[in-house]
Specification:
Zincin-like; 3 domains; 4-stranded mixed beta sheet; 3-stranded mixed beta sheet; 6 helices; flat; binds zinc ion
Length: about 230
């Protein structure tokens, strides 16, 4: 019976034997010969059942250990281009996470620390980016429709053809000058939906040193993440 085991990904190829892999997030990938029948696959799963379950448990333990270890007193987090230390506090604060020249996370919320941090970054990103967009919109006369905050890892910003501007919450880890560049870049896209000379000319008119901020993003994009 297969009941306890779930295959997350089955890859058939011109190979002769089966192979099993447990990913870091405890998923099971089974590589099988092209012509393996369902009962061949079932046999492998039966034979390897204990190995699969053991390794999935190990992967889960490891994953939860990593998350808990990252949120300890003294660990530093980026906000507006600066690193701030985290302190785990024992008293029952009103808010799970507060910021005052450093991060203060209530001990009772430790098991959901990552989610709480992301929530905090989303709030800050929404407020900061909206403020800067509004500022440059007033200066330039460029109009936009809505601002969305996304979870994108690589795409800091985007602009839809309806004038909706989207930004990753990760952008709020960058210095304000870089946030300004991202804001202006997407705002100018409401008028120039391309990266033509005209587009860059309009960006430069609002931010004469924009190339420096572009370079910062190229050099430092890897810090804009929460592991
Ligand atoms: Zn662009």
């Amino acid at each position: 019976m297969l009941s306890e085991i779930t295959i997350d990904k089955l890859v058939r190829s011109r190979r002769k034997s089966f192979s099993l892999e447990i990913t870091r997030d405890a998923k099971l990938i089974l590589r099988a010969p092209e012509k393996a029948s369902l009962s061949d696959i079932q046999k492998v799963l039966d034979r390897k059942k204990r190995w699969i379950l053991n390794n999935q448990n190990l992967a889960k333990e490891r994953a939860s250990g990593i998350t808990a270890k990252e949120f300890v007193t003294g660990k530093e987090f980026w906000y507006l281009g600066k690193l701030y230390k985290l302190q785990i506090i024992n008293n029952h604060a009103v808010l799970p996470l507060t910021f005052n020249n450093g991060f203060y996370l209530s001990h009772s919320h430790l098991d959901n620390a990552r989610g709480i941090f992301i929530h905090w970054y989303i709030d800050q990103a929404g407020a900061k980016i909206a403020g800067r967009i509004n500022h440059y919109s007033l200066l330039s006369g460029l109009k936009y429709n809505r601002i969305n905050i996304t979870n994108a890892r690589r795409r800091w910003g985007s602009c839809s053809n309806r004038g909706n501007l989207s930004f990753s919450w990760r952008a709020v880890m960058a210095p304000l000058s870089v946030i300004d560049y991202l804001a202006v870049h997407e705002l100018v896209h409401t008028e120039e939906m391309n990266h033509s000379g005209r587009f860059w000319g309009k960006v430069k008119a609002l931010l004469p040193d924009y190339e420096q901020q572009r370079k910062w993003l190229r050099d430092n994009h890897q810090i804009l993440s929460l592991f």
